[in-house]
Write a structure and sequence with these properties.
Chain B: InterPro entries: AAA+_ATPase, ABC_SmlMolc_Importer, ABC_transporter-like_ATP-bd, ABC_transporter-like_CS, Mo/tungstate-bd_C_term_dom, P-loop_NTPase, PotA-like, Transp-assoc_OB_typ2. Chain B: One of its GO terms (biological process) is putrescine transport. Chain B: Keywords: ATP-binding, Cell inner membrane, Cell membrane, Membrane, Nucleotide-binding, Translocase, Transport. Chain B: Pfam families: ABC_tran (PF00005), TOBE_2 (PF08402). The complex is a heterodimer. By secondary structure, chain A is an all-alpha fold. Chain A has eleven helices and no strands. Chain A has one domain (20-266): Orthogonal Bundle (MetI-like fold), CATH 1.10.3720. Helix content of chain A is 77%, strand content 0%. Chain B folds into two domains: 3-99 and 175-253, P-loop containing nucleotide triphosphate hydrolases (Rossmann fold), CATH 3.40.50.300; 259-382, Nucleic acid-binding proteins (OB fold (Dihydrolipoamide Acetyltransferase, E2P), Beta Barrel), CATH 2.40.50.140. Classes of the chains: A mainly alpha, B alpha+beta. Chains A and B meet through α7 and α8 of A and β6 and α4 of B.
């Protein structure tokens, strides 16, 4: 057994972190590059951030992505909470294991398959009921809600599993009927899990390229789609600036999710 | 200790309701059975509990006492049987409609609400006006001496303070019946003793019927007006603490409550006002001053409490109820000493003696040869 942090441990940790973060740090550094060439250092500058905010195509895509992320994270939080609640509270019945497996399947399903199957579904639905008409923001929102729901369901389910059931019994004993019990006791106690599920969904939706590529339509490109099409024509320093901002946004959301998850444990302390 | 001995001024003459044959029970449990799959947690239990009682359900873990309590609260539906509270059949009434409140073993305080809001929770569900809720919460918090902590969250309180919040929360709705699940289980010994008397004081002041579940026989003896001992889902005996200790009805109760020396024997004579039992272990006859109404030659157990035995160096001058042996162990406990005496038959007997004198000079010690004796009314004969 290794007691304390030996030099071997420190070295391998250091190597791992360099491996993970060196590319990202390089990208952030080059976003402050004066030069027009991505690989040549020309001194410090915020020039490309200015260019970025004047680029209407990118700003438009950013707005669409933000809108989609907000709506689908919210829908996923509501539906995922319901799914998690049902899965943890229903008594054992035949097929419960399969059902909970189904809810979490999108977590491991290749995105290509999810995207393709949703596209086929939307096309079939359009020819049968005429809704959703064409592909666009609506279909992306539905698609993102579908796979984000799974994340929220898992987080909420595990929170409910660790929740002291006597709290709910105590509330009933004091006269709370099932509906007020849910809104006054259960919901506040699982709200940190829902919030962190929401933040997770928000970042997943903001990041997604594959599924959105399948189910979006003309004039509805999300930010990752625009970036991807741009880099195929050659990387511009503008994209570096954009990527830096996205890393910032995602890091803030993920750190917030972790902090919220941690705080919920404080309630259960002695 | 029963209520009648705690407050002789109010109940000096009146018989407590559970001793009256015609009294109306407040809680009537009728042939309740609860099964979880193949496992029978509570097996055909019938029990009457009267107004203002402090009834203790006593038993080990898995005896069914908690399941019985949860059925009274409404968290479990009985498989069969009825629960009648204050004249109304409540067997299948949901918990939020029962005039019953419960104090949980874990206290189950809502972690996201302040002390005040925890206590107010039940009153708000009744839809009482804000001013009245405020007043009643303040009153009950004063009663449990927690007024100054009203705005704290539960995780900022000590164990004893949480216990009092839980108590206040369950009392504030003025339930007809209060259920307490191991109410003192999580407290340390000194706090537990103080709280025991606090509970008894509250119960007398408020006039609420209490049902307490506990595995601690000392706690049950101190608190209860009556005790029901449970084992394997069945109530083995229901009695007042004194009777439970002095007249256990079977071996389980005798051994579960307090310490006891148990000797196997056979009945020799059995008359209306006397009986004799021969015990091989004691190498002689046990003489009793009352009949035991069973067949002669029937095998029985004779139970003698350690403190009912006299231990002397000199032979006692009675023909019966005596034996002799050698001291194998001595434990000095301060107020009393415990001796283990090995009889000639090889059987070990436990004897306790109060240390009445500071220095008795001739103190009994290891390997001393001693005589044990007891009175005809000290032993109990058990047939089951």
């Amino acid at each position: 057994m290794i007691k304390g942090n030996s030099w071997a441990l420190k070295l391998s940790a250091g190597f791992g972190f360099v491996f993970l973060y060196a590319p990202i740090i390089a990208l952030i550094l080059y976003s402050f590059n004066e030069s027009k060439l991505v690989t040549v250092w020309g001194g410090w500058s915020l020039k490309w951030y200015g260019e970025l905010f004047r680029n209407e195509q990118i700003m438009n895509a950013a707005w669409i992505s933000l809108k989609i992320a907000l709506i689908s994270a919210t829908l996923a939080a509501v539906l995922g909470t319901l799914a998690g609640f049902v899965l943890s509270r229903m008594r054992k019945f035949r097929g419960k294991t399969i059902l909970s497996g189904w809810v979490t399947a999108p977590l491991v399903m290749p995105e290509v398959i999810t995207g393709l199957s949703l596209l086929l579904l939307f096309v079939a639905m359009e020819s049968m009921f005429g809704w959703p008409a064409g592909r666009g923001t609506t279909t992306i929102v539905i698609a993102h809600t579908t796979f984000c729901l799974a994340y929220v369901a898992v987080v909420v389910q595990s929170r409910l599993a660790s929740l002291d059931e006597t709290l709910e019994e105590a509330a009933m004993d004091l006269g709370a009927k099932p509906v007020s019990l849910f809104f006054l006791i259960t919901l506040p106690l699982i709200s940190p899990a829902i919030l962190s599920g929401w933040l997770l969904s928000f970042t997943l939706s903001l990041d997604d390229l594959v599924i959105a590529s399948f189910v979006s339509g003309p004039g509805n490109s999300t930010l990752p789609m625009v970036i991807f099409s741009k880099v195929r024509l050659g990387v511009t320093p503008e994209i570096n600036a954009l990527a830096t901002l996205m890393i910032l946004a995602v890091s803030v959301a993920v750190v917030a999710a972790i902090v919220i998850m941690r705080r919920q444990n404080r309630f259960q302390g002695p | 200790m029963s209520v009648s001995s705690v407050m002789p001024q109010t109940t000096s003459q009146a018989k407590p309701s559970w001793r009256q044959t015609d009294a109306e029970p407040f809680v009537r449990i009728e042939q309740i059975t609860k099964q979880f799959g193949d496992f029978t947690a509570v097996n055909n239990v019938s029990l009457d509990i009267y107004q203002n009682e402090l009834f203790c359900l006593l038993g080990g873990s898995g005896s069914g006492k908690s399941t019985l309590l949860r059925m009274l609260a409404g968290f479990e539906a009985p498989t069969s049987g009825r629960i009648i509270i204050d004249g109304v059949d409540m067997s299948h009434t949901p918990p939020w409609e029962r005039p019953v409140n419960m104090m949980f073993q874990s206290y189950a305080l809502f972690p996201h609400l302040s002390v005040e809001a925890n206590v107010a929770f039940g009153l708000k569900r009744e839809g009482l006006p804000n001013a009245e809720v405020k007043k009643r919460v303040a009153d009950i918090l004063d009663m449990v001496q927690l007024g100054h902590l009203a705005r704290r969250k539960p995780h900022m309180l000590s164990g004893g303070q949480r216990q009092r919040v839980a108590l206040a929360r369950s009392l504030v709705k003025q339930p007809k019946l209060l259920l307490l699940d191991e109410p003192l289980g999580a407290l340390d010994k000194k706090l537990r003793e103080e709280t025991q008397f606090e509970l008894m004081r509250l119960q007398e002041e408020l006039g609420i019927t209490f049902i307490v579940v506990t595995h601690d026989q000392e706690e049950a003896m101190t608190l209860a007006t009556r005790i029901g001992v449970m084992n394997h889902g069945v109530i083995v005996q229901t009695a007042e603490p004194h009777d439970m200790y002095e007249y256990p009805s079977n071996r389980f109760v005798a051994e579960f409550i307090g310490n006891v020396n148990m000797f196997e024997g056979t009945v020799v004579t059995d008359e209306r006002d006397s009986a004799t039992v021969h015990c091989n272990d004691l190498q002689g006859l046990v003489y009793l001053d009352h009949g035991i109404s069973c067949a002669s030659n029937q095998s029985v157990s004779v139970a003698i409490r350690p403190e009912k035995l006299r231990i002397t160096r000199d032979a006692p001058n009675t023909p019966h109820n005596r034996c002799e042996g050698v001291i194998t162990e001595v434990a000095y406990m301060g107020s009393q000493s415990i001796y283990k005496v090995r009889l000639a038959s090889g059987c070990e007997v436990r004897v306790t003696q109060p240390n009445a004198q500071r220095d008795s000079g001739d103190r009994l010690t290891w390997d001393d040869h001693v005589h044990l004796s007891w009175d005809p009314d000290s032993s109990v004969v058990l047939t089951s």
